[in-house]
Structure formats: C-alpha cells, structure tokens
Specification:
Elements (H helix, E strand, L loop, with lengths): L8 E2 H14 L4 E5 L1 H7 L5 E2 L2 E5 L2 H13 L3 E3 L2 E4 L2 E10 L2 E2 L2 E2 L10 E6 L3 E6 L1 H11 L2 H14 L3 H12 L5 H17 L5 H8 L3
Parallel strand pairs: 2-11, 4-7
Antiparallel strand pairs: 1-3, 2-4, 5-6, 6-7, 8-9, 10-11
Length: 208
C-alpha cells in the first residue's frame, strides 16, 4: 500500500475538500471517482496523486468548472489546481468517457457506481469495479495492473463477467487487439498471484 505524503491525498482529505465545496455550491452535481481516486475512496489504496472525477451530466460539468474557477482553481497540466494546494491536480471527465475509454453505460445507471457520500448538493460515488478495472487496463501501465489486481482481490470480482464486459468495451476502441493484449498481461498477473487458473488465461487468449 502506498504511504500518504504531502504529494498524495487520502480519501479522508478528499472528502473534506468536497465538504468545503458543498458549503459554497448552489447547484446539484454528481461526482464519480475513477482511477486511483476511486480506489482511494474505496480504501483499496491509502492515497492517490491525482484526483479524477467523471461528471456524467454535461451541464453539471460546465457549472462545476465555472464554480471551481470562482474558488480560485486554475488550469494546470490538463486539469485544475488551487494555488493554496498546487500539488494536487483535479481532472474532470464528462459523459461516459474516462481517460481514453468510452464506457458502455453511464456511471449514473443503476449499479454502475458505488455510493460514497451524499450531501445536499453533491453526490459522490466511485466507478463500479468492473469499469474501473477496464479503464485502467486500457491504459496498461504496471501501476494500473497492480492497482487492478488489488481491486480484483478486495472485491472478489467474477473473472468471467469481467472478461465479457472488457471484450465488449474493447470492440469500440481504435485498437481492440492491443486492448486484449493488455488484458492478457493483467490475467497473467492474476494467475501468478493465484487468483485465476490457467483455463481463464486460455479464454482470454482466445479473444485475440
């Protein structure tokens, strides 16, 4: 587990920040944590470096960006950061898109996010574990593989259902074969940790 530092934010501190937003905001907005942010909110990781949220409703996204600008958040490295805490970069995605991945469903659909906290104006959830793993394995770094293995173990995810949804999502990528290769690497990591068997790895390879 990664140790928190001044360059990383814990789930508790992140919720405190959103508490501060709640006291000042005047409209409703849905925030769905994704990537390392979701893993931190779900206590699978102790902390995260960057803060990533999906704002599925575009009008809410536009109002949120304007609101954060009024609080002093400024554009930085493809996201927003506050001068009082410049180490933390907030990135916001809108619609069904996360990083470079188009999700099959809206994160607001039933079962597609895990509730974390609900305020009067702000709803905070974490992306469901299947889609969370898919978006990170699409990126395919070693850190993503390690994070996804931790999520897989923590929530005892059904590998067959995950594979089916992953393969369906990969069909819509510009390079579906590369996405399947990324999943093979992930499946091999799960096999090495004893979380799946050789039969599952053969099923994954059959999608190539």
């Amino acid at each position: 587990m990664v140790t928190a530092s001044k360059y990383r934010i814990t789930g508790r501190k992140l919720i405190q920040t959103i508490d501060n937003w709640e006291h000042l905001i005047s409209f409703k907005v849905n925030l769905i944590g994704c990537g390392g942010t979701a893993l931190t909110l779900l206590e699978i990781k102790e902390s995260t470096k960057d803060i990533d949220f999906i704002v599925p409703v575009h009008k809410e996204y536009e109002r949120l960006i304007k609101f954060l600008g009024s609080l002093g958040y400024e554009e930085k490295g493809g996201g927003l950061a506050h001068p009082d805490d410049p180490s933390f970069l907030y990135q916001f995605w809108t619609g069904n898109r996360v990083f470079t991945t188009d999700l099959l469903d809206s994160p607001l659909d039933p079962g597609k996010n895990i509730p974390v906290k609900k305020w009067r104006h702000i709803y905070l959830g974490a992306l469901n574990l299947q889609d969370l793993i898919i978006t990170k394995i699409f990126r395919g770094t070693q850190l993503d593989v390690d994070d996804c293995a931790a999520a897989f173990a923590a929530y005892q995810i059904d590998p067959e259902e995950l594979l089916k949804r992953y393969a369906e999502t990969a069909k819509y990528d510009l390079n579906p074969e590369k996405m399947i290769q990324n999943f093979i690497i992930f499946a091999e990591a799960l096999l090495e940790k004893g979380m799946v068997g050789h039969g599952f790895l053969r099923k994954v390879a059959a999608y190539k």
